[in-house]
Design goal:
Strand content: 15-25%
Distance between the termini: 60 Å
Number of strands: 16
Mean pLDDT: 79
Helix content: 25-40%
């Protein structure tokens, strides 16, 4: 945890302790080391003005910006491009969640079936509304705070037998190892989270520390359980949950020790090894008696003999881990990492703050000039006293103003008007250029925001949109796609470790049918790997290409519905083809009520609903009809039933 490794005696583990999660560390030294590391990290980022920069970015997003007023009477002008940029970019980043694929560990049929089943489950979990909300919040905070954090944990209250879940941790509540040059939490020496809980919840989590917790809170001695005490138990308190790794020295060899500790004030509530890793394993019994097998080979026999345990030929220890080593349950979402610290050096939001100030200033000047352009009236106080002028509104057309013009004088000598020019076209153009530059730096140009730039061709607009999508796709690859893979990897670790009893899972199949699966830890095999096969932006491009292909007449309905991710694509394609090629069958099968068959009616008439041609001739299919809205080839005409179901 600190720069100096602790002595070997600190890690001396008594042989009589059988708990595999036991962590033999000195409590006082552990508390001191944890708090010292937190203090050093906070001081480092305070000197780097990180917290000031985070606050400024967040305030600008909320609209708390520098307001420029050219005069005391001018109204303030504010155009929040920071908010608009994030609001435009986030829907594109989350419009399509990435597709995950679990690669089997070997070529066996069982491994391939398990990988296919896990692929469906992970994709179903990834597209759940709560997960989309979780990743949406993370991707929104990342450019404002230079990083965002997602945490996974095992929730024993979820489901019948407990289940894994993912939660968001606000950047204000996380402190980490600033010496690490990567945003991988496993490379950080520590990750500390400040959790706000009720006093009663903390006592429930650590019942053996109830007296120490109450003493740290300031609970008076000899107090009875009264209503006032119940209010005290509902008081919010902050505890530190710190995940760390340390090194156990043994001569010239070193062992990495991963652990977690909970601290409230100066009280150590609990310490243990990483609870999300199987250190103990379980013994698997087997026999060495060779039996004749049709599929057995000499290589398999020698491999089995070489792999047997030297100490015990009848038992083999099996560890229920998907991970090779213990990992910290945090994912740091970072895009602008430059290899000097775990978080981003800057962000696309910080880079446009000056443009935001410039737009507010230019807008204030333009608005003030336009207000002043209505001119200013000047009256002679000899004709109208100043007290009268203070009470009247010369711009009220319903108010009559009488002027005493001296004899022999003209009204021009009594009243005059000062004219001022409005804002020039050059000022508007300069403001628009600054606005466009800021949006381009945030990868949300005019075409991406749904606006058509003047004097731009369709090809130029398409190229501009593709350029924005290229940047957004790169952001998604380093943030959302990486988070989705991290989630799936942790899901396999939790399944392998905690799914000792069958867990019922529901997933939606590609053809709209609901599949039910009962999962156990045996479904995760060694060697499995999770990868992203298609990102959200990739699927948006694929959807647009599918529409263009159908317009060009080089696409098929099934591929169209699959690429556009519409529900039940096979059924939709079947209806679309039937309504064009066999409308009578379409009406009979989907629109007419089913009636009992008449035994005297030929079977062909029951199916087609109309008399058939004589002989063996089959009814000719009508020529394909052009899609609704005009001739030519275009997007496949969906069936009327599907259209009205959608409406």
């Amino acid at each position: 945890m600190n720069d100096q490794l602790p002595s070997q005696d600190l890690f001396a583990q008594p042989e009589e302790i059988l708990d595999p999660l036991y962590l033999d560390l000195d409590d006082d030294q552990l508390i001191k080391t944890v708090k010292e590391n937190i203090r050093n990290s906070v001081n480092f980022y305070t000197d780097k003005k990180l917290y000031e920069r985070q606050e400024k970015n967040f305030n600008y997003y909320l609209g708390k910006q520098n307001i420029f007023k050219t005069s005391s009477t001018a109204r303030p002008y504010k155009e929040n491009i920071i908010y608009e940029g994030i609001s435009r970019q986030k829907p594109i980043e989350l419009s399509r969640m990435p597709d995950l694929v679990v690669k089997p560990g070997d070529d066996s049929k069982e491994s391939k079936e398990s990988a296919e089943q896990l692929t469906g489950i992970f994709n179903s979990d990834s597209k759940r509304r709560d997960n989309r909300k979780l990743l949406g919040l993370a991707i929104k905070l990342e450019p404002l705070y230079f990083y965002s954090v997602v945490k996974t944990r095992w929730n024993p209250e979820k489901g019948m037998h407990g289940d894994y879940e993912y939660v968001h941790v606000h950047p204000d509540n996380v402190v980490f190892d600033y010496n690490c040059s990567d945003n991988d939490a496993n490379k950080m020496r520590f990750v500390s989270e400040k959790a706000k809980l009720m006093l009663k919840e903390v006592i429930m989590m650590f019942p053996d520390k109830e007296e120490e917790i109450k003493a740290e809170f300031g609970w008076g001695d000899g107090e009875n359980a009264t209503r006032g005490d119940e209010e005290k138990l509902a008081s919010p308190i902050n505890i530190l949950e710190t995940w760390f790794h340390w090194y156990k020295l043994s001569g010239e060899e070193a062992e990495r020790v991963d652990g977690v500790v909970w601290i409230y004030g100066d009280t150590l509530l609990k310490k243990m090894r990483n609870p999300y890793f199987d250190y103990q394993g379980k013994k698997k019994k087997f026999t060495w008696v060779l039996k004749e097998r049709d599929s057995a080979s000499m290589d398999e026999i020698f491999e089995m003999i070489d792999s047997r345990s030297v100490e015990n030929d009848e038992e083999l220890v099996v560890y229920n881990n998907y991970f090779q080593e213990p990992e910290k349950p945090y994912f740091f979402m970072v895009y602008e990492n430059m290899g000097k610290q775990p978080i981003g050096e800057t962000s696309r939001i910080e880079q446009v703050l000056e443009f935001q100030d410039s737009l507010n200033q230019d807008g204030s000047i333009i608005a003030d000039m336009n207000i002043r352009s209505r001119g200013k009236d000047i009256f002679s106080t000899d004709a109208i006293p100043q007290t009268t002028l203070d009470r009247i509104d010369i711009y009220d057309i319903d108010q009559v103003l009488g002027i005493d013009v001296p004899q022999g004088s003209s009204i021009a000598n009594v009243h005059s008007r000062i004219e001022q020019k409005p804002a020039t076209a050059q000022q508007y153009r300069s403001m628009e250029e600054n606005r466009q530059k800021a949006f381009e730096m945030m990868a949300v140009g005019a075409t991406t925001r749904g606006l058509k730039e003047p004097d731009s061709t369709l090809g130029e607009s398409q190229m501009a949109r593709e350029a924005d999508y290229g940047v957004i796709d790169d952001i998604v690859e380093d943030t959302i796609n990486a988070a989705a893979e991290w989630q799936a990897n942790w899901a396999m670790q939790f399944i392998k470790l905690f799914y000792t009893k069958p867990h019922l899972r529901h997933i939606l199949g590609k053809d709209g049918d609901v599949l039910h699966s009962r999962l156990t830890q045996d479904i995760v095999n060694d060697g499995m790997e999770v990868v992203v096969s298609a990102s959200g932006v990739d699927k948006m491009i694929r959807k647009r290409m599918a529409i263009e292909n159908m317009k060009l007449g080089i696409g098929d309905p099934l591929s169209f519905y699959e690429d556009t991710e519409q529900s039940n694509p096979k059924e939709r394609a079947k209806r679309a083809m039937m309504v064009q090629l066999a409308p009578q069958m379409y009406i009979q099968e989907y629109l007419m009520e089913q009636e009992p068959a008449d035994p005297n009616t030929p079977l062909t008439n029951q199916v087609m609903g109309a008399p058939q041609p004589p002989g063996d001739a089959l009814p000719s299919a009508p020529a394909p009809q052009p899609p609704m809205g005009g001739g030519g080839v275009g997007v496949p005409q969906d069936d009327p039933l599907g259209l009205y179901e959608i409406i």
